[in-house]
Amino acid sequence: MTDETPSRRAVLVAAVRGVPLAAAPLALAACRGVQVLGSPPPPPADIRALSVAIKAEEQMVAMYGAAIVALPAGAAAALLAARTVQAEHAAHLRQLRSRLIEPAPHPSATPRPVTLPPGTTGTTGSVLQALEQAEQAASDKLIAQLRVLPPALAQLFASIAASEATHVPYLRHVPGAAP
Amino acid sequence: MTAAVVAALQSALAAEHSACYGYGVVGAHLAVGSAAVAAAAADWIAHQRARDALTAMISDRGGKPAAAAVAYELPFPVTSAATAAQLAATMEDRVAQAYLALVALREGDLRMLGAQQLRACALRAASWRGSTQAFPGLTPASLRS
Fold it and tell me: Where is pLDDT greater, at A10 or B10?
């Protein structure tokens, strides 16, 4: 008799107590703790995609925060544009989060600090160019996931992808942007 | 072809028909030789191509493509270059909404087409408006507060 097989005594006890025999192995497993159970099933594709999208939007909001700090103080138009676009990303994040019930973050979990991509200097043109590249990549990534999503979530992803695509020319036309 | 697919394609086609008409009005109020009139011409051509593609898609699937109306009622009077630009942006918003319906379909290729066209509409709308939107194509009622 292997360790996973309920003993004769356990089966008998289960029968006497009214536990169906088919449930006896489960009852035995419960006594041993959760370690004998298999790992939980992976989340469905749409939940995974939503979680990834939420993290990506968090990164975008944080990246704009880093950009606002990095931009030269005199770059008023670039600062205004960065704050405007950051507000749209915050709106994206709120809508994405409203579609997912997330467990509260662990108290000890600290968000990873977000910085601008390596090679970004403090010039207005360099900062805006880094943001443009991040926007285009984010838009393309959302559209690439549309096929696996339920209809309403696909529409939200497509709309956010369209919004992020419009940020590219918007940033490119800010005074001081790289030609 | 399901009824939902036909309805979504026909709605997108109807929106493209109205945009093709509307860009004629837009162009008539822009200065000849200006960058704006060149942009309007390019956008007009883009909508004509999209209209033709949708017409072919509906025909290929055994449907009868909706015909364009002789004329369309404008959402507001267009009397200047500024109101012409406003009309262009408004039309792009409405076409974007029609393409968003394609994104809700189960056919992956139609979803991708809807998303790509939605993005193109949003880019043109932002260009005419000079500002961006957080949720192109989505109505406020579809957003959660």
Answer: B10
List the CATH number of the domain containing A105. 1.20.1260.10
The arithmetic mean of pLDDT across residues B54-72, rounded, is 96
Q: Is the pLDDT score of A3 beyond 60?
A: no
User: Token match 């992956």: residue?
Assistant: B108
A162 contacts B105? CB cut-off 8 A: no
Residue A178 lies in a domain: no
On the question of pLDDT at B68 being above 50, the answer is yes
Specify the CATH architecture of the domain B3-131.
Answer: Up-down Bundle (1.20)
Residue with tokens 């997330």: A102
- Residue of B134 and A115 predicted with greater confidence: B134
Contact list in A for residue B97 (CB cut-off 8 A) is none
CB distance B126–A169 less than 8 Å? yes
The helix (H) or strand (E) run that includes residue B20 is helix B3-28
Chain A residue closest to B130 (CA)?
A170
Q: Test B108 with A152 for CB contact under 8 angstroms.
A: no
Pair A137, A101 in one domain = yes
- B35-68 in b/e form (b: 16+ CB < 10 A) is ebbebbeebbebbeebbeebbebbeeeebebbee
Give the nearest partner residue to A161 out of B115, B121, B127, using CB atoms.
B115
Return the minimum-mean-pLDDT range out of A23-32, A55-64, A72-81, B135-144.
A23-32
Model confidence, pTM: 0.85
A36/A49 same-domain check: no
Distance CA A82, CA A76 (A): 10
CB pairs under 8 A between A and B: 94
Range of the domain at A20: 1-40
d(CA B36, CA A47) in angstroms, rounded, equals 44
Closest chain B CA to residue A168: B123
Give ipTM to 2 decimals: 0.96
